[in-house]
Amino acid sequence: MNSAYAASIKLLIKRLLLILILYQLCRVLFFIFNRDSFQDLTLWTFIGGVHFDISSIIYTNLLVILGHSVPGNFKYRLGYQKFLKLLFFFCNTLAIITNCIDIEYFKFTGRRSTINLITAQGMHQEIVGLLGTYMLQYWHIVFILTLLLVTLYKATPDLKFSGTPSETQKRTAYRIGAFLLLLGITFLLGRGRIHRKPLKMVDAINYSSDTSLVLNTPFCILKTLFRKEALKERKYYNEVEQKAIFSPIKTFKDSLPTQKKNVMIIILESFGNESVGAANDGKGYTPFLDSLITESLYFKNGFANGRRSIDAVPSIISSIPSLMEKTFTLSRYSFNNVKTLPKILNKEGYYSSFFHGGYNGGQDFDKYAKIAGFKDYFGREQYPYPHGDDGNWGIFDEEFLKFFNEKLITFKQPFFTTIFTLSSHPPFKIPKKHTGRFPKGALKIQESVGYADYALRTFFEKAKKQDWYKNTLFVLCADHCSSEGNGFYKTTLGKFTIPLVFFDPSNKKLKGVSEKNFQQIDIFPAILEYLNYSGAFISYGNEISKEDRLIAFYLNNLYHFIKKDYYLIFDGEKTQGLYNIKTDRMQKNNLKDSHTTERLAIEREAKAYIQSFNHRMIHNKLTVE
Q1: N or C: which end of the chain has fewer CB within 10 A?
Q2: Where are the alpha helices (DSSP H) in 254-364?
């Protein structure tokens, strides 16, 4: 290899080492800003990180590598070298930006972002207004990003070669040989291992249970870029065995006629247990919700089935948990035939409606409402007044709940309605007239939670005066937890704990604190049971009368299940963790090897649950034939 070609390859290596160092800085910053979320930090965590970083860097710099290594004297021209440097800067700027975004965005999702970060629907209408707000709120990320990009540009070395490269037959052979060798090395480093299958996101578990710290965001985006987001069949058992262990078919037969009670589901944005007084010995920021809980059936051990708002709605309305990487509403299965709650109640003579104060099209709630069978959708565009816009997401809760109340008076009974609140969402704005009224709290979100709770109080005060009120079953729950929290609420399990409340002002027996585990997908069958509904349907949740149930959610390519006192983490093939959540609230003591009986029992049901879910989703069998 002549000196000119060697200088080009050395320059390539220096540049790739520079970006590898910057990836490590991003990981350190990711850890610092989210340190309470990680519990399995060892040297192997960072060794694994380097492994995934190298693979990602190879993928994102393929054109740069080819540009440096392809034989030819044109490479040494000044114009070509400037182009290569700009190409290197551009490719790695995108990688650094996505890594920096996840420093804060991880708090909301609990996982590294995938291609959905770029292609997610429902943000196009809000992004112009939100971009400036978020840049101000997360100015420290903008500052960090700027420093990293300036460092990348300033520290990128230039080609240092003097003389005129000459081409001979022998030197050409050397260059071609070196080029082919470099391509082979690039191929192996990009694949991440000498194995029939390349490095995958799920392989991060081999280094640490803190998989998000091992991974990097560019790798996750690239690995999901061309993924069809298709589930795969799981064949743990034959069909007869699977159905004997678990079946989602529910058949209700009630001797009493169906109650024609109105049903109202109130989904509270980010009202995780970390802010609710009833979940924290009275120390919270939701005085009205806490007072309502004393008059309601309250599930102390309530869980969300996903980490995003768009996960919550199908969980609650369709009893479909989030057991795949892509949310159901944006997946290829979104048009599967599903017997949803509004479809069932429509046939029972109900009028159904969905309300959300955000801009129509936001998170595709309007599209999902139509698919789910709601007769009408009311969003920002249907809000008739000029005041109340928060300047970011839509209408403040207080104003939109007033509008909601006005519409309810016009509805023919019985009605089924769902409203999704808005204000306790970043950037956590409250109306100026309420400045200083609500406690700031230990978390950024808690002042806006206090405001949203106040808006809920004003809604109920007016609702009590309406004739429909006493003939209504109210179900209140959060869509998910906030991005923040301390102690238990920083654990994976703590980030899924939410309040779940059933309130009927005409039924004093529907009252008390239940110790049962309960989840969003249980709301669907619970409502039908309460109404004395008779019929068959598919539900991955269970009715209130069911004493024992399997709680399910999916995060970081792992399945998470709760059964009684045990919490199991399953990768699809084997258990990665088993914890007693009553005696080990912080999940410090992994019992997977010592509590074999408990592990195998939950594994057995979890496998049947996954097999049923995947099969029915793939083959569009989400209704009872």
Answers
A1: C
A2: 287-293, 309-318, 341-347
Q: Phi and psi for 31 in degrees, rounded to 5?
A: -70, -45
CB atoms within 10 A of CB 17: 12
Beta bridge partners of 579: 567
Whole-number Å distance between alpha carbons of 356 and 358: 6
Rama region for 473: left / alpha / beta (φ>0; ψ in -120 to 50; rest): beta
pLDDT digits (tens, 9 = 90+) for 18-60: 999 999 999 999 999 998 888 778 889 999 999 999 999 999 9
Total length of the chain: 625
DSSP 8-class letter at 134: H
Report yes or no: 23 and 184 within 8 Å, Cβ to Cβ: no
Task: Answer yes or no: are the C-beta atoms of 219 and 201 closer than 8 Å.
Answer: yes
Q: Do the beta carbons of residue 97 and residue 168 sit within 8 Å? A: no
In terms of DSSP H, where are the helices of 321-364? 341-347
How far is Cα 394 from Cα 596, in angstroms, rounded to an integer? 51
Q: Are strands 500-503 and 472-478 parallel, antiparallel or unpaired?
A: antiparallel
Q: Which residue type is seen at 296?
A: S
All residues at 6 or more sequence positions from 11 whose CB lies less than 8 Å from its CB, including other chains: 68, 157, 158, 159, 160
Cα 293 to Cα 473: distance, rounded to the nearest angstrom? 14
Nearest to residue 479, comparing CAs of 495, 457, 491?
Answer: 495
**Cβ-Cβ contacts under 8 Å for 464 (sequence gap 6 or more):** 505
pLDDT mean over 93-101: 93
Q: Where are the beta strands (DSSP E) in 190-242?
A: none
Cα–Cα distance for residue pair 356/365, rounded to 1 Å: 8
Whole-angstrom Cα distance, residue 74 to residue 121? 44
Pairing of strands 575-580, 500-503: unpaired
Q: What are phi and psi of 460, to 5 degrees?
A: -65, -35
> Considering the entire predicted model, what is its pTM?
0.77
CA quadruple 562, 565, 566, 567: dihedral sign: positive
Alpha-carbon distance values, 560 to 300, 479, 552, 563, 615 (Å): 19, 18, 6, 10, 19
Percent of the chain predicted with pLDDT > 90: 64
- In 3D space, the residue among 85, 205, 232 whose CA is nearest the CA of residue 157 turns out to be 85
Q: Which whole-number Å values give the CA distances from 321 to 261, 448, 553, in the listed order?
A: 26, 28, 7
> How many degrees, rounded to 5, is the angle at CA 66 between CA 60 and CA 72?
160
* 136 pLDDT tier (thresholds 50, 70, 90): confident
Judged on CB neighbours under 10 Å (0-12, 13-18, 19+), 151 is middle
